[in-house]
Amino acid sequence: xxxxxxxxxxxxxxxxxxxxxxxxxxxxxxxxxxxxxxxxxxxxxxxxxxxxxxxxxxxxxxxxxxxxxxxxxxxxxxxxxxxxxxxxxxxxxxxxxxxxxxxxxxxx
Length: 108
Fold this sequence. Notes:
two-stranded antiparallel ribbon; 4% strand; mainly alpha; 2 strands
């Protein structure tokens, strides 16, 4: 999914957009370990304990699974709320772009 779709985000989604780019790179290169400096600021509080526990126990595979799941879930939630969008998409367009602007862009 990440290789086929480019995501963009509004204010407050910087950590999530960085995480999506890292995940995209990990998938493209076959990387298995999430970099130590990978952002986690976007992770919902209800999942943060899972990440912390996996990091403390040095379970890289578990950490990667939890972190990747959080990235995908937060992208989904961002698309639903309008904080994240897909350029050129009708359904998941930038909410700041008005309906008329979107129509004009499509007609070009």
